[in-house]
């Protein structure tokens, strides 16, 4: 088991168990100076988000600097003791509203956004907690389908910080002690923010796995399991059935389990767990699913079979068959939460309006387009299953005459598997790096890419912005009509690409 301070990359480890910074220390002063310099024009002028003050954003960055001293979410210790103690001290805010709890390997965030849109459209006040974020930690905590402000983030942190100190003192003392991780603190912040709002429904995405994830202190009224594959093998192992058992841990007694289509053996594991805990089951392809799908300008038009009947003429402004399946999951989850059934369906117009409003940043998102330039898409695919869904969507939902991929991936992922899935869909690839300490070295990534694509189809450019520009030039070598660039390989890569194109967190 890894403990705080053990081989932790720079900027990711704690100063020590229970470390609390001096509010006036040099690091915070440096953060404030950086923001002020930005506003004066010495750096990127749009570093301060719209609607946030310079001082408020500086405080937000200072809080993030404090939280970044804790374990990052790429590290975990299998226990719910710390987070249970923390939420108990906070008054168990996660019990103040019914929850749709989501786990799976891919599609969780998109599905969570769709559930949020549906519940909001039928008049419920919602709180949504997702991870990881693309550009800013405020994306993780949403009230009324919108991220909280940096200022509110700081307020919530200050509210929970004294209780964090108490739990750290209890669990983080001594050489064997483990203080709260950043993810555990953020999870408690999300629950507290929802209770303060107050919300009428929570939509909570698992961070890693299920059974031991910090979010699993909730007892979800509805438990959603998106498609399960291999990811986070260092924690969940390489046995997909073992991964399924871990993820099944969010399905609690009396819940409704909304299950995406799975492999036969994985489906059996999930059903067995449902039987053990007495959960009701709704399965994609049986109780609900996609009845029809056709391409449309800017997305797709779908017909969904819900738990309460069919909903037709739905426009979904997202690309890919996988997003249609996510929509079916979201519809069933929303129906299950509010008790919709054959005798009581959701308002079809509300369903249509909700799906038409859905946005999923960094998921086959068009960030640049024009008659005289190559289209640029951004996608957060970071494992082979995600890359396969991306490649299929690029092939079926678009008609590119020439498509170039820009890839920066984490070295602890199955990078060869990602590249192999992308290879049939793109003409050439430009490999690069993102800002994470876990990013794979571009030369190492280039060597892997050559083994998959061949040397003639691979370029190496260590700087992401320059890699995107190089890819656009490669795409446009024979003209701009029908040409495209897709930037992918990591959530961090997708977030940094969005920022380069001037898009704000959402």
Textual characterization of the structure:
With 506 residues, the protein is an alpha/beta fold. Helices cover 39% and strands 17% of the residues. The chain has helices spanning 26-40, 54-67, 81-89, 108-121, 150-171, 182-196, 233-236, 240-248, 264-277, 321-338, 348-357, 384-396, 415-422, 442-453, 464-475, 491-500; strands at residues 99-103, 126-129, 141-143, 146-147, 201-205, 222-225, 256-259, 280-283, 289-296, 299-306, 309-316, 365-370, 373-378, 402-407, 428-431, 458-460, 483-488. The strands form 3 sheets. Strands 4-3-2-5-1-6-7-8 form an 8-stranded mixed β-sheet, sandwiched between helices. Mean pLDDT is 89; it is low at 1-29, 31-36 and 38-46.
